[in-house]
């Protein structure tokens, strides 16, 4: 069974209405009343009306009515009274109850305002890394072309500038501007295209991609060799977080190898 949800929330206020000089109020006309001070509950304005000579159901009542004035401080009561909303006691029973002492009595009035509970749906997971990853994969709006081991890889200068100033500087210094305004950069130092793709993937998404893929039908790099190459590239281009991830992976492999040797 699915758990239930609370669809309402409540605001509550308690007001003590003191009636002093009860005997004097008995002389008031049938529909005359005494109003409480203005009360504000949940942003709504209210008054409590005390009618000492209310006539209903063949009895005289001491009646209390909660009157809605409106929203906010400028609210004014509109419309007439609704007798069905009165609460109180038969006058004869009240006078015989012993609650009137010193010609005074008090009534505690509790005002509860229910409102719909605002249900906030869960915020969607951040997907910026997915969007940037798709931008890298598609090559749309790319203005940089890296040539790595004869393979063309597209990228975006603005992303490189934000994530790897060292790589962005290499584009500015070592790039050749093409007719369409983009820049072509030859990446040397025996960099493999797969390693450079992994480097760019991290720059765009802040995540590490799968490391055992094939390049142009050739055998894939061994995972450890790939991580070592990626670690070297991360150091070269100032990607400290990627470098730390690679070093942790290499350290884990070393620890596993040591454990296996001991066993």
From TrEMBL:
Domain BTB: 142-212
GO biological process: protein ubiquitination
Pathway assigned in UniProt: Protein modification; protein ubiquitination
InterPro entries: BPM1-6, BTB/POZ_dom, SKP1/BTB/POZ_sf
Annotated PROSITE patterns: BTB
Name of a matching Pfam family: BTB
SUPFAM superfamilies, per the entry: POZ domain, TRAF domain-like
Chain coiled-coil ranges: none
Domain of life of the organism encoding this protein: Eukaryota
Stated name of the protein: Speckle-type protein-like
Lineage: Eukaryota, Viridiplantae, Streptophyta, Embryophyta, Tracheophyta
């Amino acid at each position: 069974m699915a758990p239930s949800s609370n669809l309402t929330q409540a605001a509550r206020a308690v007001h003590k209405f003191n009636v002093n000089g009860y005997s004097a109020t008995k002389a008031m006309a049938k529909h005359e009343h005494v109003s409480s001070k203005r009360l504000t509950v949940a942003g709504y304005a209210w008054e409590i009306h005390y009618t000492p000579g209310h006539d209903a159901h063949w009895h005289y009542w001491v009646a209390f009515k909660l009157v809605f004035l409106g929203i906010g401080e400028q609210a004014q009561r509109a419309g007439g009274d609704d007798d069905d909303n009165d609460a109180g006691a038969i006058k004869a029973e009240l006078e015989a109850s012993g609650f009137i002492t010193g010609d005074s009595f008090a009534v505690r009035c509790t005002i509860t305002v229910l409102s719909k509970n605002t249900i906030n749906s869960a915020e969607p997971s951040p997907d910026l890394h997915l969007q940037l990853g798709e931008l890298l994969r598609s090559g749309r709006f790319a203005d940089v072309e890296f040539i790595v081991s004869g393979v063309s890889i597209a990228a975006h200068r603005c992303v490189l500038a934000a994530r790897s100033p060292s790589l962005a500087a290499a584009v500015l210094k070592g790039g050749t501007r093409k007719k369409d305004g983009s820049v072509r950069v030859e990446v040397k130092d025996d960099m493999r295209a797969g390693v450079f793709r992994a480097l760019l993937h991290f720059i765009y998404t802040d995540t590490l991609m799968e490391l055992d893929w094939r390049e142009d039908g050739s055998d894939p790099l061994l995972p450890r060799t790939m991580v070592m190459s990626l670690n070297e590239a991360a150091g070269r281009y100032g990607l400290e977080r990627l470098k730390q991830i690679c070093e942790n992976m290499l350290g884990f492999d070393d620890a596993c190898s040591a454990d296996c040797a001991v066993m």
